Amino acid sequence: MDFDLTDDQKAFQQAAKQFAAAELAPHAARWDALSEFPLAVIRKAGELGFCGIYAPEAAGGMGLSRLDAHLIFEQLAYGCTATAAYLTIHNMCTWMVTTFGSAELVARWGEGLCSGATLASYCLTEPDAGSDAASLKTSARLQGEYYLLNGSKCFISGAGATELLLVMARTGGAGAKGVSCFLVEADRQGIRYGRKEDKMGWNCQPTRTITFDDVKVPRGQRVGSEGDGFKFAMQGLDGGRINIATCSLGTAQAALDTAQRYLLERKQFGRALAEFQGLQFKLADMLTQLVAARQMVRLAAVKLDQKDSDASVYSAMAKRFATDVGFTVCNEALQIHGGYGYIKEYPLE
Length: 349
Hints:
The chain has 9 helices and 10 strands. The protein is of the alpha+beta class.
């Protein structure tokens, strides 16, 4: 197994790192404090191809692998976790539409989605159905050339600010085979948006409930065939788990680097904190866990790229491990900062 990155992968990684340093990191704290969704910056990311990373080239995407996407998303998360997380969601929507949508649907929306000129929200979660897509209740009933969409979705990232909604809805009977996928304009008559959720964090990414009341959706805006929605959702969740694991890595790396700088700057008992062996051990443990998590996420991404039969399992394990490591590393970085880690003036907060 070759653990070395190719020259192209290093170039993607560096481009994302430079973008994050220039466009994300300097503004992340302000965006969070003001609950500002940085649409202009997200569209700038699209100009670099970061809104269609693994969408097909024929549709306007970069056509890269999930491993390549992981390398890009980790660098973006280093600059702003919440913005990077939204970009992963948009990329999933873009990939789903451009991979499974009809030629007409791709011709109409593919280029805008890949470029970031048109942004999308993913509408799967419901009050009584989270990752359990087979039990969702939102319905789409065919009447002539239109489907009538009814139901509600919750915890939808970007809702109220994006132009398109990728909606999973029930067109058939109970269970997985009754779920279909639709691309819906966000301003269609009958769509209502709830209040923006007041969250503990990730405030620069708006989160709302969406209600559909007899929303007319042309049958040509169904993605794939009737009954394909559950399959698409499961494939989306595999990639989504790798993506959220990757965001955790980027955030943890930023916290680790911040803690390391603090240890070099802060002095107690007449010497820098970095000279205390106990703190050196702590930093070594943080880095070891982070590198282990990164390798597991990359393994899961490779398995997904290779369509390995175990890809779903590895994606789930990578998310479980990397998010836990991310929390641990960030918490240890806060402890290293002492009380300063809890003050907004310091970047760790």
